[in-house]
Amino acid sequence: MAAKPRVLVTRRWPAAVEAKMSEVFDVDLNRADRPLGIADFRDAFRDYDAVLPTVTDKLPGEAFGEGAARTKILANYGVGFSHIDTSVAKERGIVVTNTPDVLSECTADIAMTLMLMVARRAGEGERELRDGKWTGWRPTHMIGTKVSGATLGIIGFGRIGQAMAQRAHHGFGMKILVQNRSAVAPEVLARYNAEQVATVDDLLPACDFVSLHCPGGAANRHLINARRLDLMRPGAFLINTARGEVVDEHALAQALWYGTIGGAGLDVFEREPLITPELLHSDNLVMLPHLGSATRETREAMGFRVFENLCDYFEGRAPRDRVV
Ligand code: 8YV
């Protein structure tokens, strides 16, 4: 019988997935659960048939090492893969897969959470209460912004953007504006009574809330910069559950400080887990530690989706979620 493919799982995964994976493949687990570095990946590309990275694994060109790689497939645990230099993977003939669909709902739930928290000042309120500073109800205390019925702009109308529209329109009666790099089918827009606008610059001044659901990577780096923050309505809110690099954090910190916008909710950061220090001074900002897909159900589903992609590949079928 042929030897089992050697697989490197770069972080600890849900136990059920690790167990399933180990039944079928010769699996090495990163027991210390520490992020791996460039040198680790150079070794891994030489020693493993498959490497299973996450968002904490930065894989620029130099991480692929010199010469022929043993690795045939990078099966990413996550939908976003801007941490992988896919042009080098392609050049080396390495297949890349991701885990779409299974995390859309939970990520949209976190975007809604951030939107509600920042608009209704939930983070501030909880801090006040825990700090023993709440003096009691009064008509003018901690007044926020109404979410229901407001206009939400969604940048990137893929699966997660649509899951957000579903919640916002059908749950909160919000008016939905969409900006997407390609035309969205009229029947898809109709599901949320949404309207597509041509550019980000057209969308921003028309919205009370803006939620980012586009991919990261070089093409969208600092898509939201100082100039575009200026285009937003003075009391508007920015929500980012996409990728940190999409927002210029220094520009955002300034906009929050000077009141150019009303507030922001972030689940992802430019240099996560490092946080741009100026952000920590803003009360009108809610920050979460990249929790988008962090539910038991979703993290297991993501793992099993990676497992299916690996089985497809090593059993000679086209992996269902191949992106390179
Ligand atoms: C994942 C995410 O948990 O899937 C993504 O792209 O941003 C997260 O929800 C993370 O990327 C794990 O690799």
UniProtKB/TrEMBL annotation:
SUPFAM superfamilies: Formate/glycerate dehydrogenase catalytic domain-like, NAD(P)-binding Rossmann-fold domains. PROSITE patterns: D_2_HYDROXYACID_DH_2, D_2_HYDROXYACID_DH_3. Residues 112-292 form the D-isomer specific 2-hydroxyacid dehydrogenase NAD-binding domain. Keywords: NAD, Oxidoreductase. The keyword Transport does not apply. GO terms for molecular function: glyoxylate reductase (NADPH) activity; hydroxypyruvate reductase (NADH) activity; NAD binding. The keyword ATP-binding does not apply. InterPro entries: D-isomer_2-hydroxyacid_DH, D-isomer_2_OHA_DH_cat_dom, D-isomer_DH_CS, D-isomer_DH_NAD-bd, NAD(P)-bd_dom_sf. GO terms for cellular component: cytosol. Its EC number is 1.1.1.29. Residues 24-323 form the D-isomer specific 2-hydroxyacid dehydrogenase catalytic domain. Belongs to the D-isomer specific 2-hydroxyacid dehydrogenase family. This is Glycerate dehydrogenase.
